[in-house]
Structures
1.
Amino acid sequence: MRRLHPFTLLAVAAALPAAAWIAPPRTGGMATVAAALVLIVLLDGRQVFTVARAAAFTAAPLWLFLFVLHGTTGLVETGLRLTTVVASSFWLVAVLPPPRLVEAMIARGWPVSAAFLFSATLSAVPALRVRAGHLVDAQRARGLRTRGGPLIRLRALRALAVPLVLSALHEVDERTLALETRGLGPGIKRTPLAPPPDSAMQRAVRWGILVACVAALAWRIA
Amino acid sequence: MPVRLLALIPVAVAINLALSAAVDAVGLPLFLDTTGTILATALAGPVVGIATGALTSAVNSLRNPTFWPFVVVQVIVALYAWAATRGGWFRSLKTAVPAGFVLGVIASAASTPISYFIFKCATTGGIALTTKLGQLLGFPPLGACFFGSFIADFGDKAVTFALVTSILHALPRRTAARFPFALRAIGAA
């Protein structure tokens, strides 16, 4: 499955939730959840367990909230749809590494800036999260009180958030310099190093999925 | 788009997603997940703010796909932050905090239909519980859903606006001057 073109994988992952909402709630939901679970089962050995567990941990609270708010009927009808969304998304994350998607975007003529934004964000978020953790530890070591009344907590929040954000903004200068050095600018085209192979068959499948979704929607509305 | 503004977007998205560590440390019921969107808009305008909001939802969706439909709220927050920048509401906390409260009402009104029609209001634990409280108080289904979102968003957006104002004023003038709207946002230009 990993060999499929990223756009084909995206089309499948988007079609399942779409079908879950277009089809009748119970039967349609059951069919799309089953399809998403089949996709997960088809993953490589260890990934099956990891992805299924992550999807279950994400979906379980939603089932609980639905049961508390709407009882068994709401749990079954909306729960199946939401489970489809969760399961197909986790499957997509498992089969589609972001760098491969970026390569496909560049190969298809997307602006370099769009590809940069996606990949740079994925690397910036974990780095800033680690820095946030260090900052919390450092401020606590300096005697910052993070517990107490709301005002004390709000002051502590300011003492933690402002330095973190300021340090992140100073990083913009370094990133700008690095990007300019690498020649990133408007109107510049890049050549992808390893563009994912596409085929007429896969293009036909993507169009088929789109046509099927539109036809199903028209059938449901009629 | 100038390279500096392009470089700002991933940083602003990271701010949106990393501030949860500070919130966890102080144990307040806040999200602060629009701080980067509002800050990016105040520094660099609505296009950068909208891109930050959309990318935040996309990256968050990789971890929890239920975030994606709320991309609309991020866009509305960016547009409101642009109005706040042009209106000079970041000049002091006296104007920023009420503006944040208003955004809380707008954001909860914008997120209610998404939350109701897609998730039946079962999005996060806090919102589900406050929606249940709204049901017990006798609100109609959509009203209970709005009540849940309102409780979550009202204070959160006021704190976010106060925080962004503090950051804009703490930013060294030389750094602020490198962004097109930063000095205007705080009334220094």
Note: The mean pLDDT of chain B is 90.
2.
Amino acid sequence: MSDAPNTAISSESELGEYAAGEAMISDPSEGEPSEGMRLQTLSSGDEGLEDVPGYDGPAGALADLWTPPTVDLPDAGEASFGPLPPAAESVIGVDDRIKIQNTAEYPWRAQASLVMTAADGSQWIGSGTFIGPRTVLTAGHCVYIKGSGVPGRDGWMRSITVMPGRNGSATPYGAKTSSAFRSVTAWTVNGNQEYDYGVIILPSSFNNGWFGITSLGDGDVVNSVGNIAGYPGDKPAGTMWYHSRKILSVGPRKVYYDIDTAGGQSGSGVYRLVNNQRHVIAVHAYGGGANSGTRINGEVFNFVASWIV
Amino acid sequence: MSAAHAGLIAGVIRDESGAPVEGARVYLTAAPGPIPDVAALTGPDGSFSLAAPAPGDYRLECTADGVAVTHTDVTVTGDVDLELTLRPR
């Protein structure tokens, strides 16, 4: 895969030069819920996954969590992943996702249900993770459709409605609609799946909190437990589901895992939980074949960090 | 890996009476390779269309609140046209 010149692109006017961050980590925040909202945050387990009642965690996968890498991990890209199976499913083996009930509490309120309206008027569902007061990280294909094969569909979404902490018909923080998006030309022009990420800029804040983002080395990524909370289409409409498993492998621009997902979870942040701090390490984008997300590498971090408002 | 296109999986979702279902969620669960993990919402006429990025075998699922998940398996060598009926749970 060649590294074609890649620049930031906006659904609005031209972007200015982005400022590269010095540190490859941004801080999370639990937010300031509006008056009347119950201010409660959840404690987490000590194994890198959320402490959700009834959720036992990734069975059989915890024995070697959070140990430093014992071998030199080559920067082998896709070679570290190996060939794709001939066919596979987004829910792998037993479906042990768990429904989140207390979606108005942190960290769940930093996750958002998305309803996207494409240029041709078709509607889609996806997910996103707040990474700033007005900034929702999501997949590139959630903000810009590429290669649809349908006349008039490709291009920036006409609008996206963002509902943090949605729980079925309940939207504890309400909803905001935006047509301000950011992505990179390697996705919008070239349709390269390795650059499939973007953000939604909201007109105002929900004060619901956000996650940090971080760019980690290969060893730290593969020794992480990946956590995903999002809004899968195979469950009752607008309900949030969570699952976690150890990361399987990593390439320069992709992270692979067998965390269960379904259509509608594109854009969920794949995050790790350390010392009760949540940082996104990838953006979930693809199911089938193997579940994978766009890695927050140094370049992605710099672009995304420059978009946070 | 670029956003490729081998065919379009399109169709209409109906209820048991034959009426089109608006707002049903349609998504792919198995594919010969990576597929964007989004779901389409059917339009007022029950229609949907999803891109199949590569030739091969796909499983398409559809659901809406109050009905059972329905699935169908299709082989994509070009465009595919489907009609699916949702049944109460």
Note: Helices of chain A lie at 140-143, 185-188, 218-222, 298-307.
